[in-house]
Design a protein that fits this description.
The complex is a heterodimer. By secondary structure, chain A is mainly alpha-helical. Chain A is built from 46 helices and no strands. Chain A has a domain of 289 residues. Helix content of chain A is 80%, strand content 0%. In chain A, helix 44 runs antiparallel to helix 45. The C terminus of chain A is likely disordered. By secondary structure, chain B is mostly helical. The N terminus of chain B is likely disordered. Classes of the chains: A mainly alpha, B mainly alpha. Chains A and B meet through helix 38, helix 41 and helix 42 of A and helix 6 of B. Chain A: One of its GO terms (cellular component) is TSC1-TSC2 complex. Chain A: This is Hamartin isoform X1. Chain A: Keywords: Coiled coil. Chain A: InterPro entries: ARM-type_fold, Hamartin.
Chain lengths: 1162, 293
């Protein structure tokens, strides 16, 4: 609450008269807004504004930042809903929108827009409608994309309002309808400009209905007369023009200009694009080029006359001090035009106009200038005028007249395009006239000014004058101004005719004058190309000046109004200062007071915000129009299609005129009192109507201002382009200069090259001459040389000859020498020979003597020899022969020896081979021997086995025999015991017989004993051997035999004894024994012998046989391995005793050895 | 060796196709043609191949040392052998150990006894077990060899070889038999063991008599070829093979006596196959003897 109260206080403080307080409070609010995001403050502000219409609050509201926009819009939407606050809300919206806040794109989404549309569709209050329509029109270029959704709403609104204009529903005052009509007209333009296809289709559908036909005829059709065919109708489509991409490229002012472009209404239309201008330029240019020679002055005026207004202080100084000079300063543009005509043409109309003229320039254009072509002149014409108009009232009057005049002169020209040039020509003079008028006046007014002031300086001059006037009249009362105005307006018709007459002579006068001046200044520089150097210099001089001029388009009027002509630097003060300064802007309020009859003027703030001068201008013009209207000018026959804007204009003008008339009747100081004094309190409804009108006007004005701002924006951009172009131009000029310089250089170089060439050719000639001379010299020298050469050759041949001669001579000399030598040699030889022959002769003599002596000796010896010779020769011969023979003998001997050697060697070889063979043989023999050995061993083994078998057999036999013996002895013992007693006598007899043969018997007994011993010892040996071999069985056999030995021996002894004793019984046994072995085998023989041996114990003779048997056994044993084949033949013959004894001895030894061996083995 | 190259080049393939003994005769003839016979080669040959019956006696005699390796001395040595035989026979006749009525086998025995010095005092003395072995072998050889001298000498040498050369290895054979039987058929062995017949198998008949009297002579010859040529291990395999052949019957029998009895009187008809298999088995286990020379 405290805050609320605080806000309330602050709000009340906002309207405080103190500036500082206001600023502080505004700052506080802004701070609050930036910190607080809530909607409350904004709401409060809006409420307050709606309540009080406070300007600072409006200012705050219009500059709201981003987060608050929503609140503001919501609040306004809310206000819009209420009928009471609708109008202020709309006006607030208008204010806000016109400033183009950064959040303007949000408008399309805001609920405010539909409610606005709804309001426009529903509301019946004309003021609200007009205001709303204007707001809508202003808003449309900002939100072109949103057209899609609301397009039909727009169209519906248009349809409704257009019908309103005609039908006038309710009791709407006519005067409001004019406003409404104007706004509808603007809406028409906007819609047609932005959405041509859709709009046309809407029109087609809407006005095809019968009930709307009247509206179309009355309202829409006249509007359509003021527009061209939109190019989009041809190229575009309904969808395309709603395409956001199309709108993205365009800024708000672009859209506005776009819309203005299609307008034919001079108040609305604008031509600035190159394409729309170019035809004029191209059409005008040749004419101008042709014209230049005649009137360069005009061209300068056209091209940059207005532009050069800025440096007016200096130029004026120049003008004032040395009036003869200006042509020089002017010449550069002229020359520039000559050199660069297209650029100048591009520059001249629109750009220059845009730069110099304030945005309200169309307002200056008289309504008669509806023709598109005349617009150019309108603008060009206007450019100069505003400078003069603001302060000085005189200029506008002629302007108006000139305007009036121009259309009259032009109108016929519009029909035929070829006359365009003429028209421009005629228009241009018109312009000049216009400028000259004030000029003349100025000249007239300025008594100090001598001679002629150039046209180019005119605007500046004028502005200067105006400012001077302004500064002078600043202090004067507004009443005086209005008075003056009225005077002028009343008097304006008068100079109309005289001007026309005065115009042409001036023009004609001026035309010849200008070239003259030009001529004098440029000293006959008709063809700039003839002497470019001065041109260049002038260009260089003026180069920096031109941009300066270009940069200050709007300043001159400002400066002119605001400050004294002290310096152009001071003119660059800000607009605000100019706004704040008490300037002519004060005038309209006063007038407004007059209008508003003391009421607080509702459009007061308007003038403060707007450029004072333009507003004033506008108002003054309106008043003029109104005046005219009020006068009911007969000459003003309106064209059939008067645009609603013009109608409105006229209305305003008429109103103003009426007002001024009223005012003029009154004394100025008591103006405020007038109303009361005049007619008491004015009727309330009139006041309301007037106020509403004012409001409408205000709205209109604001809309127009918005448009102006857009134009200004555009202009700034164009200016940038212009500056750029100027810079480029400068650059081009510089380049051209450079080019020229370079060309000059090139020329210089060419000249120098020529010189050099000439010199070169001269040098070449010289050189050629030299060369020729030298050649001739060379030739001569060569000739000389050849001569010399020939001479030398001749000399050489001579020399050769001489040499040859010398050589010949030398040869001859040599020959002679050799001859001499030869002869000398011969001589010496001869002398030697001579001496030799002499010595030989001497020797010969000596030899002869010796010969003689020897011959004598020889004779002597011959004699001696003859006596001895015969003997010695024989001997020698003999000896020789002997020697020869001996030699031969020796030789043959040697030969023999050699042969022998050979043979012996051969023999040795043979023997060696033999030896090898023998060795081989030996080896073979050895092998064979081995073989044989092996063979023999095999056989031997067989034989041994056989022998073994034999031994076994004998063993078996012996065993058998022993067995038999054993049995026999047993039997014999029994028999003996029986026979002992019976045969005792026989035994005695036998003993006697035994004694007879005792000796030999004993011997044989001994013999037998030994042999028996031997035979007994023998069997056990092999038995033992076999026992050792055979094992247990064998040993058992051996044991069996050994214990039997002693008994058998004994038995043998006994048996020998006993057998002899009982021979009869024994004889039977030997027979059986003897019959047993077959006589054919050795065993059989042995057995027989054995048995015989046994039987010999009875007979004596047997002893010998036994011994012999044993002998044979022994011998056989010894001989057995050697010869077996003989053994069967052996045993027959009884052998003599000595070998027997020997063999016994041998046996003994063998036996001993064997037993011994056995023992050692055992 | 040069004669080897004259052999039929197809000889290598005969065996592969299954014709056995086609080339053996020829190669044996080649071997026998050598003067100074190569005992080693003959041994190898007879171990590898069955001997042709016409050369068997000769080869045996050579291998057993009855005949020397030289052909020259064959006649003489043979004469010696014959004389020895006659002498021994005569001696036995003299000592009245043999008579014309005495069976030839017994004559051989007596002769052997005489030669080895083991002749009993009387023919009526009971025979020793080794004499029984001799008799069995002699009976078998008598069937094989016609000539009585040859017969006696072969018997004699054969027995001598058994007694001398194989004296060490013969007692080992039952163990080897067990081992190989285990390898071939362990079930059978375990069966024998369970029947406790293993120790009571007719080892005497098999190893001491070398199957004499067990197998028919025609088959026996082939076994003895190997024995003569120096390998007594063949006996083991023959025994194993006998068991394998009659496995079903043996398995059916449960008592050791029955088994022994059965084995002592095995059927004669399959003996040839048994021997062939046994030789294969022997080759398999002991490898084919390769001529070392």
């Amino acid at each position: 609450m405290a805050q609320q109260a605080n806000i309330g206080e602050l709000l009340s403080m906002l309207d405080s008269p103190l500036l500082s307080v206001r600023d502080d409070v505004t700052a506080v609010f802004k701070e609050n807004l930036s910190s607080d995001r809530g909607p409350m403050l904004v709401n409060t502000l809006v409420d307050y504004y709606l309540e009080t219409n406070s300007q600072p609050v409006l200012h705050i509201l219009t500059t709201l930042q981003e987060p608050h926009d929503k609140h503001l819009l919501d609040k306004m939407n809310e206000c819009m809903g209420r009928a009471a606050s609708r109008l202020p809300a709309l006006s607030l919206l208008g204010h806000v929108i016109r400033l183009q806040p950064p959040w303007k794109h949000k408008l399309s989404q805001a609920p405010l827009l539909p409610s606005l549309l709804k309001c426009l569709k529903m509301d019946t209050d004309v003021i609200v409608l007009t205001t709303g329509v204007l707001v809508l029109i202003t808003m449309l270029p900002m939100i072109p994309q949103s057209g899609k959704q609301h397009l039909h709403d727009f169209f519906d609104i248009f349809g409704r309002l257009s019908s309103w204009c005609l039908k006038k529903p309710g009791h709407v005052t006519e005067i409001y309808l004019v406003h409404l009509h104007a706004s509808v007209y603007a809406l028409f333009h906007r819609l047609y400009g932005m959405y041509p296809c859709n709009f046309v289709s809407f029109l087609r559908s809407h006005y095809s209905m019968k009930e709307n036909l009247d509206t179309f005829e009355e309202v829409v059709r006249p509007m359509m007369e003021h527009v061209r065919i939109h190019p989009e109708l041809v190229t575009g489509s309904k969808d395309h023009e709603l395409d956001p991409r199309r709108w993205k490229r365009l800024e708000t002012h672009d859209v506005v200009i776009e819309c203005a472009k299609i307008s034919l209404d001079p108040a609305e239309a604008s031509y600035e694009d190159g394409d729309s201008v170019s035809p004029q330029v191209s059409a005008r240019f040749p004419h101008r080029a042709a014209d230049v020679a005649a009137s360069p002055y005009v061209d300068t005026q056209n091209s940059c006359g207005s532009a050069t207004s800025t440096p007016y202080s200096s130029s004026r100084l120049m003008l004032l001090n040395m009036p003869g000079q200006p042509p020089q300063t002017l010449s550069p543009p002229a020359t520039r035009l000559l050199t660069e005509p297209p650029q100048a043409a591009l520059w001249s109309p629109s750009t220059v106009c845009g730069m110099t003229t304030p945005p309200t320039s169309p307002g200056n254009v008289p309504p008669e200038l509806s023709h598109p072509y005349s617009k150019v002149f309108g603008t060009t014409g206007g450019k100069g005028t505003p400078l003069g108009t603001p302060a000085t009232s005189p200029p506008p009057a002629p302007l108006c007249h000139s305007d009036d005049y121009v259309p009259i002169s032009l109108r016929p020209a519009t029909a035929t395009p070829p006359k365009k040039e003429e028209k421009t020509d005629s228009a241009r003079p018109c312009l000049h006239r216009q400028h000259h008028l004030p000029n003349d006046r100025g000249l007239e007014e300025l008594p100090g000014s001598k001679g002629s002031v150039t046209l180019s300086d005119l605007p500046g001059f004028l502005g200067d004058l105006a400012s001077e006037e302004d500064s002078i009249e600043k202090a004067k009362e507004e009443a005086a101004i209005s008075k003056e105005l009225s005077e002028i307006t009343t008097a304006e018709t008068e100079p109309l005719v005289p001007r026309g007459g005065f115009d042409s002579p001036f023009y004609q006068d001026n035309l010849p004058g200008c070239p003259r001046k030009n001529h004098s200044a440029t000293s006959g520089a008709q063809g700039a190309s003839v002497n470019p150097e001065p041109l260049n210099s002038s260009l260089d001089k003026l180069g920096p000046d031109t941009p300066k001029q270009a940069f200050t388009p709007i300043d001159p009027p400002c400066g002119g109004t605001a400050e004294s002509p002290a310096g152009h630097r001071e003119r660059q003060t800000s607009l605000e200062t100019s706004i704040l300064t008490p300037s002519p802007c004060k005038i309209p309020p006063q007038r407004g007071v007059g209008f508003g009859s003391g009421q607080p003027p509702p459009y007061d703030h308007l003038f403060e915000v707007a450029l004072p001068k333009t507003a004033h201008h506008f108002v003054s013009k309106k008043t003029k129009e109104l005046l005219k209207k009020a006068k009911g000018n007969a000459e003003e026959d309106y064209p059939p299609s008067t645009s609603p804007a013009e109608v409105l204009d006229r209305l305003v003008q008429q109103g103003a005129d009426a007002h001024s008339k009223e005012l003029s009747k009154l004394s100025l100081p008591s103006k405020s009192v007038d109303w009361t004094h005049f007619g008491g309190s004015p009727p309330s409804d009139e006041i309301r109507a007037l106020r509403n009108q004012l409001l409408l006007l205000h709205n209109q004005l604001l809309y127009e201002r918005f448009k102006r701002q857009q134009h200004a924006l555009r202009n700034r951009r164009l200016l940038r382009k212009a500056v750029k172009a100027a810079a480029l131009e400068e650059h081009n000029a510089a380049m051209k200069d450079q080019l020229k310089l370079q060309e000059k250089d090139i020329q210089i170089w060419k000249v120098s090259v020529q010189k050099e060439q000439a010199r070169c050719s001269w040098l070449r000639e010289q050189r050629d001459a030299m060369v020729a001379q030298l050649h001739s010299q060379i030739r001569q020298l060569q000739h000389d040389r050849e001569e010399f050469y020939n001479q030398s050759q001749e000399l050489q041949t001579k020399l050769e000859d001489c040499r040859n001669m010398i050589a010949e001579l030398r040869l001859e000399l040599k020959k002679a020498n050799s001859k001499v030598c030869h002869t000398e040699l011969l001589l010496s030889q001869v002398s030697q020979k001579l001496s030799n022959s002499e010595s030989v002769q001497q020797q010969m003599e000596f030899l002869n003597r010796q010969l003689l002596v020897l011959g004598e000796v020889n004779e002597l010896y011959l004699e001696q020899l003859q006596s001895k010779h015969s003997d010695t020769t024989k001997e020698v011969e003999m000896m020789k022969a002997a020697c020869r023979k001996e030699l031969e003998k020796n030789r043959s001997h040697v030969l023999q020896q050699n042969q022998r050697l050979d043979t012996s060697q051969k023999r040795i070889l043979e023997l060696e081979s033999h030896l090898a063979k023998k060795d081989h043989l030996l080896l073979e023999q050895k092998k064979y021997l081995e073989d044989v050995k092996v063979q023999a061993r095999g056989q031997l083994q067989a034989a041994e086995s056989r022998y073994e078998a034999q031994k076994r057999i004998t063993q078996v036999f012996e065993l058998e025999i022993l067995d038999l013996y054993g049995r026999l002895e047993k039997d014999g013992l029994l028999k003996k015991l029986e026979e002992e007693k019976a045969e005792a006598a026989e035994a005695a007899e036998e003993r006697l017989a035994c004694c007879k043969d005792g000796c030999p018997d004993s011997v044989t007994g001994h013999n037998e004993e030994s042999s028996g011993y031997n035979g007994e010892t023998k069997p056990p040996r092999p038995g033992g051997g076999s026992a050792s071999r055979g094992g247990g069985g064998g040993s058992g056999g051996g044991e069996l035999s050994t214990p039997e030995k002693p008994p058998s021996q004994r038995a043998g002894l006994f048996s020998s004894r006993w057998e002899t004793a009982m021979g009869g019984s024994a004889t039977s046994i030997p027979t059986t024994v003897g019959s047993l072995p077959s006589s054919k085998s050795f065993l059989g023989m042995k057995a027989r012998e054995l048995f015989r041996n046994k039987s010999e114990s009875q007979c004596d003779e047997d002893g010998v046989t036994i011994s012999s048997l044993s002998e044979t056994l022994k011998t056989e044993l010894g001989r057995d391995p050697g010869a077996e084949a003989k053994t069967p033949l052996n045993p027959d013959g009884p052998h003599p005793s000595p070998p027997n004894l020997d063999s016994v001895g041998q046996l003994h030894i063998m036996d001993y050895n064997e037993t011994h061996h056995e023992h050692s083995e055992g | 060796m040069t004669e080897d190259s004259q052999r039929n080049f197809r000889s290598v393939y005969y065996e592969k196709v299954g014709f056995r003994g086609v080339e053996e005769k020829k190669s044996l003839e080649i071997l026998l043609k050598d003067d100074r016979l190569d005992i080693e080669k003959l041994c190898t040959f007879s171990q590898r191949f069955p001997l042709p019956s016409m050369y068997r006696a000769l080869v045996w005699k050579v291998l057993l040392g009855i005949l020397p390796p030289h052909h020259e001395s064959h006649a003489q040595v043979m004469m010696y052998r014959k004389e020895q035989y006659c002498d021994v026979l005569h001696a036995l006749e003299v000592v009245r150990f043999v008579s014309d009525a005495t069976p030839q086998v017994e004559v051989y025995l007596r002769m052997y006894q005489l030669e080895s010095g083991k002749l009993p005092r009387s023919p009526s003395f009971p025979l020793e077990p080794e004499d029984e072995v001799f008799l069995a072998i002699a009976k078998a050889v008598e069937e094989m060899v016609e000539d009585s001298v040859d017969c006696y000498w072969i018997i004699r040498s054969f027995v001598n070889q058994l007694n001398n050369k194989y004296r060490e290895s013969l007692p080992q054979l039952p163990k080897a038999f067990e081992q190989y039987l285990n390898l071939e058929d362990s079930r059978l062995l375990s069966h024998l063991k369970t029947c406790s017949a293993l120790s009571r198998l007719p080892y005497d008949l098999w190893f001491k008599r070398c199957f004499a009297g067990c197998l028919p002579e025609s088959s026996l010859q082939r076994v003895w070829d190997k024995v003569v040529s120096g390998s007594c291990k063949i006996l083991v395999f023959v025994a194993v093979e006998i068991l394998l052949t009659f496995k079903i019957k043996v398995m059916a029998l449960n008592s050791a006596e029955k088994i022994t009895k059965f084995l002592e009187n095995i059927p004669q008809d399959s003996s040839d196959a048994i021997v062939s298999k046994a030789i294969d088995l022997w080759h398999k286990h002991c490898g084919t003897p390769v001529h070392s020379a």
